[in-house]
Amino acid sequence: MPLTLVPPLKPRTAPSLAARAAAIASELRNVASDHIELVVLEAHQAGVRLAKLLGGAVVAAILAVTAWLTIVASGIVFAAGQGMSWVTALLIAAGVNIVLAAGLAYWIRTLTTDQLFAATLRQLRRDREDISGIAP
Q1: pTM of the predicted protein model
Q2: What is the spatial distance between Cα 26 and Cα 32, in angstroms, rounded to a whole number?
Q3: Distance of CA 2 to CAs 5, 8, 9, 29, 109, Å?
Q4: Of 12, 35, 60, 122, which is least packed with CB atoms within 10 Å of its CB?
């Protein structure tokens, strides 16, 4: 077996500080890019899921309204079949619906009396006081 000469190895020199800084900056850009890409993909996925949820909610609401109208119409037809006039049965059904709508409106109004994000606003005010030393 013939001997082959291997060229001598060059001594390795440590990379300069600028080269190291450039490598670190490049890695930071790559990591940031990867994280941003992940956020974008997950935001897209969340948007698609939200669209599906909203679509399902709309269909469910339509079905619920249809069922409610069927129940009200059945009550009107039953009342008319028992001898009540159609006008009276319709007025009673309308009155019941108005009372229920008013009750829901009152309930919704009670939900809005509490200040939204109250704890967050308190914390932000506290932070502002700590920073500036000024009370609101």
Answers
A1: 0.57
A2: 10
A3: 10, 18, 21, 50, 96
A4: 12
